[in-house]
Amino acid sequence: MKFVSEALAASAVALAGLAGGSAHAATFVSFSSYQTGLNPGEVLVTDFDGPLISVPAGFVTGGTAGVLTGTSSAGAAPAFSATTADTTAYLSVGAGQTFTLTSPALSEISFYAGSLDPYNSITFTGDGGFSQTFTGNQLTAATMAADLANGSQTAAGANGRYTFTFDQSVTAVLIASNSPAFEISNIGAIPAGGAVGLVPEPAAWALMLVGFGGLGAGLRRQRRSREKLGAAAT
User: Fold this and answer.
1) Closest by alpha carbon to 60, among 48, 45, 49?
2) In whole angstroms, what is the distance from residue 53 CA to residue 49 CA?
3) What pLDDT, in 10s, does the model give residues 97-130?
C-alpha cells in the first residue's frame, strides 16, 4: 500500500520546519511498503551488492558503516514482504556509525529502509546552508505509516521505500544511528539538472531501446517513401 495524500505532503513540510530546515525550503516525503523497485524517473545510485559500494561518476561515499548480508546482531536484512527478506548485500549503520553520500545536485532521492527505528536518522544538506534532519519517528509520522518506527523486521509500516522530493537542490546525505542498526538498500535519485553520469535501470534502458527502435523504423519508412516518390517522378 502506498501512503500519498495532501495531508501527507502537509505533514512533511511541517516536519521540515521542525527539523531545522530553511524557512523557504520544503521537503515532501512519501512511503511505499515493500517497494523494492525505484520510482519512475529515478536512476540507481547503489544497491550495495558487491564487496565495494559502487556509485556513478560524481557520487562519493564515506563514513564508518559496513555492508552485510543476512540477519545477525549487527543488522537485519530488510523485509521485502511479510515473509521474505533481502538475500543480497545491504548497508547496515550501527551505533555511532555513519554513511555519507555526496552527489551532483538532486531534486529527489529514495531509500529502501529496513526495520526502521526511532534512533535512525537521515540528514540532507544543500546550497545556501540548507539542512534538514528526519528521525525514524518523524518519517513514520510524515507518512502516516500504521506501524511506527518500532524496529519490526517484517511489518509493512517499518519496511519500504522512503522518497524525499526537494524544492531546492540537495548535494549531500548523512545516514546515522544511535543504536544497531539502520539498514538501507537500493538508493535511487533524480538529478536536478539532468542525468549526470547516472545509469538508468535495465527496465528504463529497455524502454529507451524500444523508443530508439521505433524512431529508426520511422526514419527508414520516410526514406523509402522519398525514394519511391523520386522513382515515380523520373
Assistant:
1) 45
2) 7
3) 999 999 999 999 999 999 999 999 999 999 888 9
Pairing of strands 27-33, 160-177: antiparallel
Q: Residue 224 — pLDDT band, cuts 50, 70, 90?
A: low
The identity of residue 208, as a single letter, is M
pTM of the model: 0.74
**Cα(168)–Cα(25) distance, integer angstroms:** 7
Q: How far is CA 110 from CA 23, 100, 113, 134, 228, in A?
A: 23, 14, 9, 13, 52
For 147-164, write each residue's pLDDT tens digit. Answer: 567 888 998 888 999 999
